[in-house]
Each structure stands twice: as structure tokens, then as C-alpha cells.
Task: structure prediction
Amino acid sequence: MKRVLIGIFCVLTLALCYFATSPSQAAKLRPPSGAVARQVHLISSDSASEKWARLGYFSRPLPLGSMLLQDESTSAAPKGSLLAFFQRMGDSSWSTGLHESRYAYDLIESVHVWALCLFFGLAVMFDFRLLGWTMKSVPVSEVARRLLPWTAAGFVVMVISGTLLFSAIPMRSYQNIFFRAKMIMLLLAGLNVWIFHSGVYRRVTTWDADKVTPKAARVAGALSLVLWVCIVLSGRMIAYNWFDCDRQPQPAIINLLTSCVPTQAEH
Amino acid sequence: MSLLAFFQWCEASGIGETIRKSSWLFPVIEAIHLLGLGVIGGAVLVVDLRLLGLGLRRQSAAQLTRDAQPWLLGSLTLMIVTGGLLFLSEAIKCYYHDAFWFKMSCLFLAIVFTFTIQRKVIMTDESRLRPLWSKVVAVVSVLLWAGVGIGGRWIGFS
Result:
């Protein structure tokens, strides 16, 4: 259990390192091909046009090879950069198929929401116990042992479905300010879990049945609660395009945070 | 007043109008709605996993129900308030959307089931109850609440 959490934490750390080192000027480039138009349709709040856009674009994705070829010729992203990688991912037939499909994307998103109840709901219940807001008569270790495996299972489903959703629209997600905030907060939440389990939770036998848990445990519970709430909120906001790269002009700070360098034409 | 006329009146209401005109009100309310969903999920699952024998074991289901009750009621209230606001902003779309009616049916059944049949089974002395019953009740409860969540998500798709 603990090993799984530590493993997840390591993966998230690597992910953040990637984010931190990716060259920001590379973002000058906007997705070639028709990707922009399609993505804008996909996130449009007007559901009717979304429907027709998807039906309309359902026709035939180009074969993988030709997509890559086209990508090579028009791409301005430095080779080997994360942005170039996501761009290739976005132009792949897998990604195109996923975000143009009539049902696959919606189904995966439903799974993501469903797993949210399992993961977020039970994680929050554990936080509530640490804060002494519920199940005060149940020992903390009992809640952890019996409910946290469900939380972990929910988290695995969240990560898998979330990765699939990301792979459907990688370029836009990568440059989405809410997505970036979410990833950083995920990392902090993982750090919080690690600190809690390697710190005060090791001595759980001494405070197991306490109605009021030690301060360190209450702080961990409160932090976890705040972080997960913010993660859910920002996750929901990824769907909206207020701060997207293709909506210029944006304040300089937004373009900095989304590592977006608008071209002259957009000014 | 027919049902459709009522939905049209909702759509035309001042609150619905305000939410539709704002670019951020709908997303913010929707995000809070999603948080409420998560907390309901937790409060429901703590009890249902206990009934299934897959969650907490040493405490009685009745005790856990009492513990989870305030969170269930609190988040349900939050859901109904935020959900009502979202509904006002797009009532006519909901009227023609199958997922909306599916969700409302599940919601109605889930609330009635949770506070009548499930409550009765949980409060019955465990030694006098066939274990199978509590499992059946838990599965029905999970399915109904899952139906509410999935139905809600599909209102957003068309």
C-alpha cells in the first residue's frame, strides 16, 4: 500500500520535472493541421454545435504515417521537447480517433467522474476522521486499513482514465493553466500523503482511538482536504478555454504560466 | 400549466438568465456541484461497503449510518441547490434530454430507497437479518447513486 503510494509519488515528481524543464519558447507554435479548430469545437459550451462538430469530423482520420509526415514539415517545436512529443501524440490516429469518437471520450469521462466518487469521497471521509468530523468511535488505523485500499483503487482508475482523456487532446491540455495547476497540486497532495504516512501515522498506535487526533494528523487531514478540493475544481475547469493559447490577447502572466508565446498575427 | 411551460418559465427566470449571461457562473456552480457529488459518494460508500462486508467491519452499519448521515444530508442539500441553479440556466435543454429524466428518476428512487428500505434494513438487528439482504440493499443503493452521477455527466453531452 505504502509502496504503491510512494511509486505514484515518484511518477508525479518526474512529471513535474518534465514540466519545469520544457522550453517555453517552443510553445510559440500552435497545433498544425486542423487540430485547433477541432479542439475548440470539442470544448465549446454550446452542446448542439459540439454534437454536429463531432458528427461532422467523424469522417476519416488521415493514416498515421501521413500525419507524422505533415507534422515533420510544419512543426516548429524543437525535436525531443515535451511539446513536440505532445504534438505528435495529438496528431496520432489514436488521439484523433479518441476525441472525434461519438462515445469513447464521453464514456471515459464518465468513468473518470464515477471513480471520483470512489476516490475523492473515501479520501475525504478519511480526512474527516483525522479532523474528528465523522466516525469518531472508529480507530484511525481501522479506517485506513479498510477504506484506503478502495481509495487507492479509485486513484488508479482516475490516473488511467485521466491519462486517456489527456491523450485525446494533449496539446491543449498541456498548455491549459488549470491542467498545470492540477498537476502541481497533485504533486503536493502526494507529498502530503508521504509526509503523513512516514511521520505521525507511524505512531498511530499511540493515538489510534483518540477522538481528537494529534496536531500533525489534523494538519495533514486539512491540507489533504484543501488540496483535493482544489484539484477537483481545477480539473473541472480544464474544460473551459478562457485562458487558452489560441485566445489572444491574454495578460502576460497567463501566457507565461501556460508557456504560450503568441505570434505577431494574434496581437 | 403543462410541464414544458413550467420548464420554459424556469429557463426564462431571472436567475437562469443571469447564469446564462455570465461566462464563469455556470462553470463555478458546476464545479461545486461536482464536489458535492464526491462527498455524497463517500458518505454512501462508507455505509454500503460496510453492508457488503468490504469496508469497515467492526462497527455496526447503524453506527456508520449515524456518522455519515450529516455529510450525506449536507452534500445532498448542496447538490440540490447548485443543481437547481444549473437547471434554471438550461431547463429547456433538460426537458428534451433523456439523461436528465434518467437522472431525476434515479435521484428520486435513490433518496426514497436510502431513507426507507435501506434505513429499515440497517436499523434491524443484524442477528435477525439474512446477510444476503443487506448485500442486496447495498448493491441497489450503489447502482441508484451511480445512475444519478452518470446521468448527470451525460446531461452535459449531447
Chain B has one domain: 3-156.
